Amino acid sequence: MAISKAIIGAVVGVLLIGVIGGAALLYANPGVIDKAATPEPPAKSELARFATGAIARLETPAALEQAPAYVFRTRDGADARLSDFRGKVVVVNLWAMWCAPCRTEMPTIATLAKDYAGQDVVVLPINVDATEDAIADAKSFIDVHEPLPLYSDPKFQLPFELPGKGKMPQTVLLDRQGRIRAHFSGEADWASPEAKALIDALLAEPA
Question: What is the model's pTM?
Answer without folding.
Answer: 0.80
